[in-house]
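Worked problem 6 (solution included).
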Amino acid sequence: MKAGELIAHAQGKACIGDTGYSSQAIIDAIRARGMKPVIAVHPTHTNIKLRLDRKLYALRYRVECGFHALKRFRAVATRYDKTATSFLAAVHVACLWMWLVD
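Solution. The predicted structure is:
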């Protein structure tokens, strides 16, 4: 389970995710780390009851919009760079451009 590897390194008071992370195993792993799961339950998961904190879940939408804006830059979206350092530099340039223009 790749989500378990991500959760193992997560820190904070809450873990925000979309409906793809609404399995009981992931929710239990988040709670085991002492975090509050803020995940919209997938409609097909009828056995999971989880209250959704709408204010925290709205932050997820902002992050998604940020990634969408980054993907307007073709070099970032297709990852032309061969090394992690040069890719990070491209992401920094794209973020600077978004900050200056928008």
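Discussion: The CA atoms of residues 14 and 70 lie 25 Å apart.
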